[in-house]
Design a protein that fits this description.
The complex is a heterodimer of chains A (234) and B (295).
Chain A lengths: L1 E10 L2 E11 L4 E6 L5 H8 L7 E6 L2 E2 L5 H7 L1 E4 L11 H8 L6 H14 L1 H5 L10 H13 L5 E5 L7 H16 L3 E6 L2 H7 L2 E6 L2 E7 H6 L1 H7 L3
Parallel strand pairs in A: 3-8, 3-9, 6-7, 7-8
Antiparallel strand pairs in A: 1-2, 1-4, 4-5, 9-10
Helix pairs in contact in A: 3-6
Chain B lengths: L1 H34 L6 H17 L5 H24 L7 H23 L4 E2 L8 E4 L2 E4 H23 L1 H11 L1 H6 L4 H27 L1 E2 L5 H14 L4 H21 L5 H15 L14
Antiparallel strand pairs in B: 1-4, 2-3
Helix pairs in contact in B: 1-5, 1-8, 1-9, 1-10, 2-3, 2-4, 2-8, 2-9, 3-8, 5-6, 5-8, 6-8, 9-10, 9-11, 10-11
Classes of the chains: A alpha/beta (234), B mainly alpha (295).
Chain lengths: 234, 295
Amino acid sequence: MLNIENINVYYGAIHAIKDISINVTEGEIVTLIGANGAGKSTTLRTISGLLKPKSGKIDFEGQNIAGIPAQAIVKQGISQVPEGRRVFANMTVLENLELGAYIRKDKAGIKEDLNSVFERFPRLLERKVQLAGTLSGGEQQMLAMGRALMSRPRLLLLDEPSMGLAPLLVKEIFSIVKEINQTGTTVLLVEQNANMALSIAHKAYVLETGRITLSGDAKKLAASEEVRKAYLGG
Amino acid sequence: MEFLEQLIQQLINGISLGSIYALIALGYTMVYGIIKLINFAHGDIYMIGAYAGFFATANLGLPFVPALIVSMVVAGLIGMLIERMAYRPLRHAPKIAVLITAIGISLLLEYGGMLLFTPQPRTFPNVLESVTYHMGPFVVNSQQIIILVVSVILMVILTYVVQKTIIGKAMRAVSFDTDAAQLMGIDVDRIISATFGIGSALAAAAGVLVGIYYNSIDPLMGIMPGLKAFVAAVLGGIGIIPGAMAGGVILGVIEALVSGFISSTFRDAAAFAILIIILLFKPSGLFGKNVREKV
């Protein structure tokens, strides 16, 4: 579904992503793990079009999407939940979700998806007319995910959904990610919480200072000595 | 008693003048809200609007409302054109470069206006009959009422657009977080363009209203009201739409009171004294919150 071949991304003079290749098959949860600053978020931001790769190919469902603007990539069927959630704090929960469906015109379909988001996140329904900025961190994460789902993506990019959340909430969020995947959305998940990420993913890539150092089946990686030592606390 | 009469009379004058400032201030504040630029050419768009209204009435013989609409459309398109040609290429340039460009555009419009329209002031056709109503001791001009009514209608429409329509929501989203807005599929350039269009149209309406009220327009007429509207926008809190509306009216009332009770020569000084005071004591403006970030 998504096939990234040898992309290189720069921040000014800094070579942030070096020759990365990633392959996501339809229906999977693929995770990208690694330490802070390894280039995980940069990779996601490049896929979603917020950054342009200097070289390399990003192929999504047979089309090269490398370098096309972010707003056009959403229309291709990729939606990103950005790091730090980035909800529109000065707008209501409902308005945030409506903006998630900005590219769509099918009113009936939007309404249907709005209901299914509220079903999946009942707490958002309770807070429908509240300003997003007044929500708790966990609720904001749910809102950001709900907002991303409103564009009906085939591929969902999740950037650090566990960031800053209490362990119990992290568990909840991850089980929701699993559910989203089971209802047919492919997921590319970036996480520092490698343990959690590997527990729900099918496939994983380990990123170190802009390079992929390991990749393969998530269960196998979780069991491997190397990954256990570096990312799973022994 | 005479004091009270004078006070109320000046309030009437001030609210009418203030709604003009408010219309212009809205464009400043909306553009600032979305690209953090003080568009110093905005006052000159108001002048362009006045001229468009002048030609629509004097040359095309249009009545008030169609002329107002024509002027708003023309100025809106020119505002969008300026954004496209002058500001968009500088989207990633340092802020100061864009600000200097805005001053350049302002001078271009002022002196380009002199070249095209001649420096001679023009007499605005009498499209709206001026009737003076005496209500007890107070004098209200029908044109003052029209200024107020038109301004209020436009501000109600604007509030509706910004709060309820999808383009308004997109504007607020872009203004809050450009990257996140892009991830929603919002074409940021398009939204910025629309913001310039709407802001310029509002300034043009103000230009037509002033042209009718004062009867005279000239290519440099935008300088002072432009600066005053900027003060109004800062007073209300730059980037905040209701702030610009309130700031405009408050500034108009203060100016009228100063003219009435002290001397009209101190009018401008009072306006700029307000700017200094607000920047010293509450730089975020009357409606502004102290910026804090939630991590």
